[in-house]
Amino acid sequence: MADRFERRVRATLKGEVNSVAVGAPDASRLAEAAHRGPRTGRTLVIAASLAVLALVTIVVATARPERSTVLDAPARVTEAPTQVSEAAIQVSEALVDVTESPIEGTEVPSEAVQAPTPPPPSPAPSPTAPEEVEQPAAGPEDVLGVPLQARFDHTVTWTGDEVVVWGGGRTNWGGGPTPSTGSAFGDGALFDPDTALWQPMAPAPVTATSGHLAVWNGTEVLFIGGLQDPRQVLAYDPGSNTWESRSDAPFDLTSVDSAIASTGRSVLVWRSAVGMAAYDPATDVWEEVAAPPGTPDELVALHVDEATVPATVVAVVGAEGARSQGGHGIEVAVREPDGTWRRGPDLDRLIDVAESHAEFPLPSLTTLTDAGVLVVPTQGEPIPAALWDLEGDWVDLAVPPKNGCASNPSPIPIDGDAIAGNFCGPTWVRFDATIQTFEPFQQARPMVSGQVVFTGAELIAVAGICCDGTPSSGAVWASWRLPIGGGGS
Amino acid sequence: MSVSRVVGSAATGITGSCDPFLIAYGLAHERTVRLALALTADIGVAEEVAQEAWVAAYRRHLSVRIDAPEPYVRRAVVNLVRNRARRGTVERAYLRLLDRETSDDARSGVAGPAGDRLEMVELLQRLPERMRTVVALRFYSDLSVAETAAAMGVTEGTVKSTTSKALAHLRDLWEEDQDG
User: Fold this and answer.
1) Residue A122, burial from CB neighbour count under 10 angstroms (0-12, 13-18, 19+)
2) Mind giving me the DSSP string for A76-127?
3) How far, in whole angstroms, is CA A29 from its chain's centroid?
């Protein structure tokens, strides 16, 4: 009976599916889409969805204005990039400032006196000749002319047009999860990847800040908290190079024990044992909101995918080791559209975080990919990575390729995939979310945890630490950029 | 559509190309669209998913040569369909907040050339995601147990047990449908 039904399923399925007309393949579209950059197709779909949702939203909000308060659709998705000639003029002028008068009080690295060399222009996409497309560069190249001293506990933020580097401390973390409370920097600079030029930021309305949080909300960079004033909120507009002080956060926030994320219209800050608050930059109003469930812990992370509607927000709590071995394991939760949290299954996985890297706890081993929440074990451990698709159970993946170095991989989201790097070795791995496997990515420089941004075309690391030794060996300047092509090298 | 016509289409897209990837694209594109159709019951979604999978594979091919891309694309299609379902869940929840129940059920109303209902394809959509995928890969794409396991990222044992459960579940649905 089963065989007979099986044959019926096979025959009927084939007959029905094959009866539907299918469009012819178009290789020129394939090449064009591949050259437009990652996720373009998906972005178009999302943009179309947003347009429809926006229309629905307007209609519903007009009819039932009391419901409009729940809307939190990401605004930045609809904004077009605005990098125009005006910006180029601004940067050209800044070049004069940078080369002739470095920011007062800073030691400019020797390479800063060299004229920055813009990257060679990329050839225009050639859909009809993909074989001629330039391959990704063999490795990172230096970012030159950095007008800032190397530093710790600063923030590096990508705005869509420029990298914003601001604040930080003069001394090391000291081997533990406590940023220095010593002297800090109050300066910062913008880096334009298109021109490879730097522009100093206008002086901030505070003297210095380190160990703070930063996020780009689509129009301004918000710098929140920090060791010197853990409730301060500053807004920086890179377009006008101006600062504004904003209303204080409702509780103390530092990069040690807090997380930040922009969901489009609002910014979420979370300190696990204290609570979560949403900040609306348009009204300068803070509102305490439901915090993720789970065991309070100092070590938290927020991951956001703004390509979904509404933005997908995942909260991660965790500390060293599996719960069964005295550690914490990993707890996850997803924010529902109504602002409540849905807790996911715990991952009771032993992932050793070496003492020397204790400042990089389990949440920093996680990121959000198109396939779900990814946990990448430290590369010295022969244990599988894990994936949670936000619905079912955790799934074990393969053990990522490693280079024998027991350090933290700090996965960075790359267009729905993730790249994990490493302090003490040059081997990175790329997680391909489409087929959910790891592969060696690039023989590159050691990754600089937390100070790397992805621009959509390349990875840029600025003002990093510890590239050739341990954190206690002192600041080693590390500023590089790595074009990301279709994948690994 | 004949194979020669498909290959011809691909060849005209990339003038003078002898790239095995593009030849494979011409040969296998239709198969991947139809696999996605079996998984989604929506030809528009199926074509989008297949194209997204081929673009992802081609982008990878430009840096790490892939001469036989179909297994990669097949797995990509399975994952992309699953990801879309997950996002759809979130979006439907969002729309419910606006008191707007989803009316655009993408998995209904598919018709063949003569307007016939695609009964088996529609029944397939009522199976859990993993069962649906197993049935589509095993009985539409004619993959072996090992190939199905590779496409789904699961063990062969899981494929065998899921196939058995899926057929039993599908038979129940089929009989209900016939009775009704």
Assistant:
1) exposed
2) GGGPPP---HHHHHHHHHHHHHHHHSPPTT-PPPGGGGSPP-PPPPPPPP-T
3) 30
One DSSP character per residue, A360-380 reads S-GGGGEEEETTEEEE---TT
| Whether A279 contacts A266, CB under 8 Å | yes
B173 contacts in chain A (CB < 8 Å): none
In order of A75, A298, A319, A328, the CA distances from A177 in angstroms are 35, 10, 12, 17
Residue (of A223, A289, A219, A220) closest to A255 by Cα position:
A223
- Distance, in Å, from the CA atom of A128 to the CA atom of A29, rounded to the nearest integer, reads 10
The yes/no answer to whether this complex scores an ipTM above 0.90 is no
Please, are residues B44 and B26 in contact by the beta-carbon 8 Å criterion? no
Contact A31 B58 (CB under 8 A): yes
Beta carbons of A153 and A169 less than 8 angstroms apart: yes
Closest Cα of chain A to B82: distance in Å? 9
**Distances in Å between the alpha carbon of A311 and those of A182, A186, A268?**
38, 32, 12
- Structure token digits, residue A241: 């190079």
B150 touches A at CB < 8 Å: no
Q: How far apart are alpha carbons A17 and A60 in whole angstroms?
A: 38
State how far the Cα of A193 lies from the Cα of A199, in Å rounded to an integer. 12
Contact status of A123 with chain B (Cβ, < 8 Å): no
**Residue ranges of chain A whose pLDDT lies below 70:** 1-2, 34-139, 171-182, 298, 319-328, 349-364, 378-382, 401-409, 421-427, 442-450, 463-478, 485-489
- Quote the minimal CA–CA distance from A265 to chain B in Å: 16
- What percent of chain A has pLDDT above 90? 23
Q: Convert the pLDDT of each residue in A250-293 to its tens digit.
A: 999 988 789 999 988 799 999 988 999 999 999 999 999 999 98
Task: Name residue A229's amino acid.
Answer: D
Distance between CA atoms of residues B115 and B109, nearest Å: 10
Q: Where are the alpha helices (DSSP H) in B41-69?
A: 43-63
Q: Do A309 and B94 touch (CB under 8 A)?
A: yes
Regions in chain B scoring below 50 on pLDDT: 1-16, 100-109
SS3 per residue for A213-268:
EEEECCCCEEEECCCCCCCCEEEEECCCCEEEEECCCCCCCCCCCEEEEECCCCEE
pLDDT at A464 (0 to 100): 58
- Which pLDDT belongs to residue A260? 94
Cα(A414)–Cα(A371) distance, integer angstroms: 12
Query: Which of B55, B140, B142 is the mutation pick for testing A, counting most A CBs within 10 A?
Result: B55
Q: Which residue of A has its CA nearest to B129?
A: A392
Mean residue pLDDT of chain A comes to 69
